[in-house]
Structures are given as structure tokens and as C-alpha cells.
């Protein structure tokens, strides 16, 4: 494959708009505050899709962890069982800065259990099942989160927002985690799709792109000056993928070859983020139009109970059960995740979705044709917030407002917190720009 560079410094990828959600469910001002002040005040409990049968060649373990990463947990389990990574299965990854409960599976005939109780990790139970636990095989997650540095008297305002989310649904936006710590993964994805290799590297590694933490100034200056080997050596441990590109450049590779040397899993994240930026732009527009909770004639619908999309018929809209399902957030409209096999809605909604791509600065046709393995799909515009609770008070650590709620798989707890606390407060990174709610 010949990789040519179509970069132009007149309109680099850093000109693409903010990919985050540009609207809120209510007009209420957020209560501010901070979360994750203490790991033990952010609880996540995985809600299983099924219970183990008690028999089978896979050992299911319910693990509680605190303050350790997903990779660290997996590594400890594999070392204890002396097995390769292919033997382990899990439904989803859980945060490091939290107390989390989740189920994992181990393909083993071992009857005795090794000691897994060590710092930051505890085994709750073990049972057997007949198949491996696969990614996505969960109903959702239950959250219990304390917000600190707030006035407990703001509890009623926080409850009003939480109640609005329970009644109208949580906007199912992709949060900043999808776009990376600099909110620029979508810009890298757009550059990849358009073969703008120099622009991609400048945005990713240089000083002229998206905002970055001050600690990276020197290494980015080294890149700009062409001191690639020095930049690689001076970069932090987190720059694993960046080092690959820098080492390739230091060895004389062209910008195109340096980009192709980046691990495919990283390039996948870039394309996924470009995809997500289109979805968020469409969702923002539907929220401003007041149609997030409606099912338009040309919409493709989502069945929250079955966790899949379906094509509606005109008679469905008049059916009392369908109207009730929409009101109860059992059924919702979907938005686009463009790709080769994404189901297309009717002409009116299709035009809206393509315009969202224009507003996001992403070429729709390239996203569909050049997205590589990105097959495309549909994502519900909103998700239900179930079993929500709130209390407020003061304890030995100070004042707090605590929220509890359940979300289906794929939804972000930070989406709930962004509505309650304010999106800019939740970002908690000083170099990031504020969200412009009136933006297109």
C-alpha cells in the first residue's frame, strides 16, 4: 500500500470542534464540587447478565478491587493461576480510582484456589460455568458516588437534576474518556482518514495542536525541532505509542511510515473517537431541538430490554404500547456510528446525521469507506437511569452529596455527574477549554 501525505497547514486537524456534548437536560446550574477525592467514595458494582450454573470448565470469580488498574488485576490473577492471558474472560474494565466489583472467568480445571487476597484486591466468591465470560456480557453497573466540597443544602437542586434524568433519560453521549486526555483522539482519527500524516504527527506530538499539560512542553519542543530520539528518551512512561512513532522518525521513516508503525489498537481508538464525535454532535442537535426523547418517523429505534436496534413501522407509532415504551424509556431513538454496515435511517434523519458529520468536521463518506474494521452501528440517544437515590450531610471528611444510580452497559457515570455538577467541573483538567453550549 502506498501511503501519500495530503497534509496542509492551512487547516490542520486541531481546527475540528470540541467533540463533547454541547447541551444539557435541564437549565439548572451544576452544584460544583469534586468526585474521586477518595477511592473508597466511588463504588462501581457490575450487574451480571447471568449467574454461573455451578458446573463447567470455567471458574468464575467475583473480585473486589480498590486503587489498582484493570491490567494489574488481570496480571495478578494470571500469575496466581500460572495461565496465559487467553484463559481469562471479563465483561468490562473497571476504574482504578474506585472500589469496584466485577466477575471474571478463568479456563482451568484447578480445584484449589490460590490466595488472591492482597493489597487492593479481595475474592468475594467463586463458582463454575460452562463458557467463558465475554466482553459486553453484563446488564450494566450500579454506582454509589460521594461528591465532596459541596454545600449539603444544594442537595434538593442535585435531586431535581437527578430526577429529571430518571424521567427523561440520560443523554448517551461519549464522555471525554473516549477522546483522550487532550480531547483530540477524533482529530487524530480525522487526519488518519484523510492521509494527513504530517498534520497527524504535529497534532499528536507537537506544540501547535490541541491543549496539553505544561509538563509536556520540553518533549514537544524536541519534536518540533526534529530531535526525535531526544523526545523519545525524555517522554514519560505513558507515551508508549508516541515513542513508537518518535523512534520510527528518528530512524528516518517518513511521516506516513511513522504513523503506520503506531499499534493498530491506538489507531482504532482514533477512528472510534471520530465516529463518537459525529454521534455527540447529532445528539446535541436533537437535545436542542427537543427530540432526544422522541421517535421520529425516519428513526431507527432501540429496545433497551433486548439491547439492540430495530426498524419501526408506521403503525408502531400509533400503538399504545409503543408510546408507553417510549415514555418509560424502554424504547428510544438511535444515533449514528458511521461505518461500512451501519443501518441507515429514513431520508430526513439520514440528512440530519450527515449534517452532524459536517458540523463535527468529519468526512462521512471516508468514515464509512475508509474506517478500516469499523463496521458501524447504532447507539441509543438516551439511556434509562434506574434506582436512583440521593442523600447529603457531613461526616469526618467534611460535607458531601451522595448519589446512587444504575446505568446500562456502555453508559458513562460521568455523564450523570456532568449534569449534576457541571461538565467543566467534571473534566477537572486546567488546560482543557470550557464547553461552549451554544456551539453548532
Describe this structure in words.
The model has no long low-confidence stretch (mean pLDDT 92). Helices cover 34% and strands 21% of the residues. It has 15 helices and 14 strands. It has three domains: 244 residues, Pseudouridine synthase, CATH 3.30.2350; 87 residues, 2-Layer Sandwich (Pseudouridine synthase), CATH 3.30.2350.20; 87 residues. Helix 4 runs antiparallel to helix 5.
Features:
440 residues, alpha+beta, Pseudouridine synthase, 3 domains, 8-stranded mixed beta sheet, 4-stranded antiparallel beta sheet, 15 helices, 34% helix, 21% strand
Blueprint of the fold:
Elements: E1 42-48, E2 58-66, H1 70-81, E3 88-90, E4 99-107, E5 121-129, E6 138-148, H2 155-168, E7 170-171, H3 176-179, H4 185-193, H5 197-205, H6 217-224, H7 228-234, H8 240-250, H9 255-260, H10 264-289, E8 300-303, E9 308-311, H11 320-327, E10 331-337, H12 347-360, H13 364-369, E11 377-380, E12 382-383, E13 386-395, E14 398-408, H14 413-421, H15 423-427
Helix pairs in contact: 2-14, 4-5, 4-10, 6-7, 7-8, 10-12
Give unreliable regions as ranges.
Answer: none
**What's the architecture of the largest domain, going by CATH?**
2-Layer Sandwich
Overall number of structural domains: 3
**Count of distinct strands:** 14
Averaged pLDDT, please? 92
Text of the CATH class of the largest domain: Alpha Beta
User: What is the count of DSSP helices, taking H or I runs of 4+ residues?
Assistant: 15
Summarize the helix and strand pattern as letters. EEHEEEEHEHHHHHHHHEEHEHHEEEEHH
Rg, alpha carbons: 23 Å
Looking at CATH, the homologous superfamily of the largest domain is TruD, catalytic domain
Structural class: alpha+beta
Amino acid at each position: 500500500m502506498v501511503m501519500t501525505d495530503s497534509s496542509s497547514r492551512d487547516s490542520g486537524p486541531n481546527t475540528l470542534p470540541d467533540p463533547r456534548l454541547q447541551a444539557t437536560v435541564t437549565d439548572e446550574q451544576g452544584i460544583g464540587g469534586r468526585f474521586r477525592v477518595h477511592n473508597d467514595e466511588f463504588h462501581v458494582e457490575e450487574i451480571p447478565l447471568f449467574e454461573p450454573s455451578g458446573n463447567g470448565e470455567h471458574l468464575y470469580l467475583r473480585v473486589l478491587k480498590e486503587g489498582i488498574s484493570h491490567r494489574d488485576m488481570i496480571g495478578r490473577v494470571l500469575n496466581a493461576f500460572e495461565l496465559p492471558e487467553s484463559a481469562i474472560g471479563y465483561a468490562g474494565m473497571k476504574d482504578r480510582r474506585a472500589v469496584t466489583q466485577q466477575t471474571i472467568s478463568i479456563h482451568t480445571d484447578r480445584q484449589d484456589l490460590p490466595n488472591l487476597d492482597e493489597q487492593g484486591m479481595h475474592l468475594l466468591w467463586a463458582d463454575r460455568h460452562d463458557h467463558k465470560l465475554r466482553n459486553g456480557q453484563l446488564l450494566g453497573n450500579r454506582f454509589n458516588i460521594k461528591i465532596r466540597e459541596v454545600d449539603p443544602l444544594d442537595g434538593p437542586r442535585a435531586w431535581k437534576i437527578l430526577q429529571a434524568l430518571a424521567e427523561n433519560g440520560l443523554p448517551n453521549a461519549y464522555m471525554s474518556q473516549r477522546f483522550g486526555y487532550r480531547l483530540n483522539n477524533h482529530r487524530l482519527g480525522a487526519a488518519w482518514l484523510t492521509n494527513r500524516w504530517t498534520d497527524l504527527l504535529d497534532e499528536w506530538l507537537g506544540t501547535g495542536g490541541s491543549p496539553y499539560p505544561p509538563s509536556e512542553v520540553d518533549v514537544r519542543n524536541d519534536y518540533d525541532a526534529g530531535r526525535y530520539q531526544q523526545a523519545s528518551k525524555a517522554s514519560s512512561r505513558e507515551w508508549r505509542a508516541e515513542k513508537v512513532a518518535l523512534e520510527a522518525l528518528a530512524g528516518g521513516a517518513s511521516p506516513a511510515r511513522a504513523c503506520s508503525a503506531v499499534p493498530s489498537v491506538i489507531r482504532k481508538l482514533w477512528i472510534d473517537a471520530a465516529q463518537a464525535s459525529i454521534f455527540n454532535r447529532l445528539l446535541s442537535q436533537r437535545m436542542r431541538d427537543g427530540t432526544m426523547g422522541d421517535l421520529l418517523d425516519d428513526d431507527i429505534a432501540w429496545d433497551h430490554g433486548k439491547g439492540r436496534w430495530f426498524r419501526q413501522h408506521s403503525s408502531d407509532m400509533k400503538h399504545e404500547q409503543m408510546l408507553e415504551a417510549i415514555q418509560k424509556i424502554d424504547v428510544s431513538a438511535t444515533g449514528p456510528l458511521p461505518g461500512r454496515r451501519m443501518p441507515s435511517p429514513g431520508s430526513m434523519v439520514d440528512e440530519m446525521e450527515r449534517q452532524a458529520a459536517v458540523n463535527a468536521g468529519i468526512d462521512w463518506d471516508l468514515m464509512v469507506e475508509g474506517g478500516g474494521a469499523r463496521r458501524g452501528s447504532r447507539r441509543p440517544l438516551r439511556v434509562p437511569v434506574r434506582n436512583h437515590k440521593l442523600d447529603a450531610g457531613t461526616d469526618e471528611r467534611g460535607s458531601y452529596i451522595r448519589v446512587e444510580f444504575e446505568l446500562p452497559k456502555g453508559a458513562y457515570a460521568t455523564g450523570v455527574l456532568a449534569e449534576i455538577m457541571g461538565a467543566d467541573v467534571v473534566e477537572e483538567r486546567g488546560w482543557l477549554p470550557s464547553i461552549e453550549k451554544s456551539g453548532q
